[in-house]
Amino acid sequence: MIEAILNAEPTLRLAAFLGILVTMALWEVAAPRRRRDIPRVTRWTNNIALVVLDTAILRLTFPILAVGLAVMAEEQGWGLFNIVDVPIWVSIVASMLLLDLAIYLQHVMFHAVPGLWRLHRMHHADLDFDATTGLRFHPIEILISMGVKLAVVAALGPPAVAVLLFEVLLNATALFNHANINLPRRLDRVLRLVVVTPDMHRVHHSVDPRETNSNYGFNLPWWDRLLGTYVAQPAKGHEGMEIGIEQFRTRRDLWLDRMLIQPLRGPGSGHALDVPSVSQATTTSDKDH
What we know:
The protein is an all-alpha fold. It has a domain at 2-30 and 39-186. It contains 14 helices and no strands. The relative contact order is 0.15.
């Protein structure tokens, strides 16, 4: 069973990734939610090149990834669920919920800590919002994220199948909730009770810092609602909201080389703990009225 999981992981993850990416891309062409401002060739080539680079660096840096560590933990008896005696279905469900909570908290951390925000803001600097935005993360952020995930897996000792299911689901939902697709409003209201929808996550990519620092969930929407970080809709509406962050607004900033050096460029403002100046606060107050 364990060997089968390890053997199936690369094929299953790649098939799910490509299948969801192609589906979202076709859906975006057929029924887009917002008008596209930047040519696809510019953004897609650089965003996809980045995910290829991220994957190569990740594989070269870590000798074992999350599913493999879960297998090792089970063999060695490490972690909570290898100590407590609970039904396998309980450990699978609980593991997936706790892993998702860990990803939510990690996301909050990347917005709250200025040094981490410098890495994460590259994800937000995309000037359009579509499925490939869900692939756009700085390699150092990817490495830190994997380190956090491995620590959580080591502590929980989750079943390997739970980790595999979580990884596949997280990748799929990241592509889905970044997609520029036009879901019927009634369907969106129902779906966002159980999964993060594109309209819910798009708020998080608003240029307005009050909206940027909200809706941190990638998969389950419940943590935002429970922990007070949920914003239902952008102030200017989905067609009127501006995507990105203030610092990087040129098309040249969308190229791979510029993305990789973004953490070193400009001030680290815009993070969740950044207190706006009096003039900014006054401007914001005037706009609200």
